[in-house]
Amino acid sequence: MRQQTLLLALAIAHAVYGATSNALCNIGDTYVAGNWYCQEVKKISYTGINQSGSYKATTAMDENTGVCSRKDVSYSGPGAPLDGEVSIHLRGPLKLSQFAAYTMGGGSSASRKQRRHGHGHGHDHGQLHSRHAAKRAAGDLVTAVINGQTVTWAKGYDSTATPVAGQPAANVNTVEAGTQTSPAASGSTPATPSTSIGDGKWGRVAYYSVNSKDSAAGLAFLNNQGSSYASGTWSSTFGNSASYASEDGTTAAKSSTPFGGSLATSANEVFIMTDKVCNGDDCGFYRPNSVAHHGFNGSSKAFLFEFQMPDNPSGDSSGLPNAPAIWMLNANIPRVSQYGTDSATKTSCSCWDSGCGEFDIFEVLSAGDKRCKSTLHRQHNAQGGDSNYFKRPTDAPVKVAVVMTGGNFIIATLKDDVTFDETFESSTMQSMLNAYDNPNHQSVFAIVR
Ligand SMILES: *[C@@H]1O[C@H](CO)[C@@H](O)[C@H](O)[C@H]1NC(C)=O
Ligand SMILES: *[C@@H]1O[C@H](CO)[C@@H](O)[C@H](O)[C@H]1NC(C)=O
């Protein structure tokens, strides 16, 4: 009863802001294969992303010893370190109908056209002698402070994953109702900051549509299938580098190739960079002879997606079949090595393990599941994963926006009639994000440290 009263108060208080992650979890939750699932929502907002920290950037990769050298890079400011260049990653089964990238005040490069070049299928033998790219590490630790309580849980990928001993993972869901701050009850400032995206004009810097894929602009589709026969490189030490993706995403192409729009299974991944090739040291260190492009840069950026994640249990040789995903990485990760390991430390050769940034946007975590979760990975204590989830769009495409600005990262389901225009006033973008304004369909997850 006490809980219900509180929920009602929260529902009223958060009519503008959305309910807190905890409030929605108090309605009900399930624990499946190492992951909590509370309520299905249309929008998840991460707020208060404004902690300084540092990570270890790769400075060299020794092909003889397999050792990766590093240096400390410190970061600060809203959204950091994902305010720098990021790459957008897709795992099948997935159909991409449209994709657009925006920056505040951007748009000038959208006129650059991606040209169709020859395909590399005929000469691409890279996979024959490649080391199989490892899937992403299972059981990542996720720690967050939610309403003053430190919560740690393992982000498991299989049924053996369990909450970390000694850390009450169930806290996500069993927070005493009375410990929640209710702005309605206290009359103080809202417990959850506004997820306003500010003023200004958003300009499109990259656009892809499966219906006009040959004229996609401002971007390139890459994957991790590099070989000297197609593009990128391969070595027995570090495996395949990044490469241009073939039309179906399964192999490497010789040059930038229009994406066919479909990834058949979870064994297939591609990632999206800008069409700008790294020049000199303007990307910092990247794996020599790799395909290295600039990522999407800036502390205010936005991405629109139209995609479907069909249920396809067949023909999938990946470690986690039928588990599609859309996620974002610090662009240094795929430029160095998305899955390669440092032989000395047994951690990733890239800056991934040291917390240089991953934002899981729509991710299926167990085979065949119909729920997609999101998680923000950065440094210990400055990251978190919302326990609410999006419905996996198995049968029809869905439109989704990811807006990152002012230390807020918002993932929102859009109305079907939204078009991926060349420019958006911020007020238009804001109303798009508020399309589903029932507070029980919006979760706000505050990152606090
Ligand atoms: C990325 O944007 C920041 C400003 O947000 C700027 O300082 C930096 O130089 C940019 N990086 C590149 C490679 O353009
Ligand atoms: C980010 O944190 C810094 C330092 O604490 C503060 O000065 C700044 O106002 C914060 N910015 C935002 C958008 O919260």
From TrEMBL:
Record-given protein name: glucan endo-1,3-beta-D-glucosidase
GO BP terms, alphabetized: cell wall organization
Source organism, top-level taxon: Eukaryota
GO cellular component entries: fungal-type cell wall
Signal sequence annotation: 1-18
Protein family (similarity comment): Belongs to the PGA52 family.
UniProt biased composition (Low complexity): 178-196
InterPro entries, per database record: YJL171C/Tos1_C (IPR018805), YJL171C/Tos1_N (IPR018807)
GO MF annotations in UniProt: glucan endo-1,3-beta-D-glucosidase activity
EC number(s) per entry: 3.2.1.39
Reaction(s) this enzyme catalyzes, per UniProt: Hydrolysis of (1->3)-beta-D-glucosidic linkages in (1->3)-beta-D-glucans
Originating species: Pseudovirgaria hyperparasitica
